[in-house]
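Lecture notes, unit on protein representations.

Consider one protein chain, 215 amino acids long.
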Amino acid sequence: MKCDKRDLLLYAVTDRSWSEGTTLGAQVEEALRGGATFVQLREKKLTGEALRAEALEIQAVCRRYGVPFVINDDVALAKEIDADGVHVGQDDMEAGDVRAILGADKIIGVSAHNVEEALRAERHGADYLGVGAAFTTSSKPEAGHIDAATIRAICETVKIPVIAIGGIKEENLLQLRGNGLCGVAVISAIFAQKDIEAATRRLRALVEEMAGDQE
């Protein structure tokens, strides 16, 4: 599965912190019913068989909905279960090395915080970039937020799709319009909500409006 920029419109990043009383797989399905277009499994506290089991469950849900499914950082697990790809950060494996392991048909996303990192990721074969933090965020407090001018510069410099991540919610999503982004990645704006499906549907409408301005 290759990466189409429309797949990146509303990119859901998991966080099991809010899955009490249900399963992460059930929450992901709610998000997909609400209009999420891409799913990344990002569970820093899970390892080994527990992570593999979670990945297989969510992969099965995503396949039912025809939505791309990638794993954060864990290239070996992505290869083992034949996930659609991986997302790696600046401190992880280079995109070109990931490509050598996973093959030409897999999706590789890379986090970038400035134009230099963005260009390097593109040069090494990234399919898309996740840039941020767009706003301050509790999920990654160490990631300083980048301004609109930097986001715009990245989007204008690279040819691959760019999404914003970090602190994005309904109240601030439309502040990102006009920067050239093709979508947004969200965590708590989906998975911390009581009605995940309804919250996702509202976000989908907002991001359609934001991305429509970039056409």
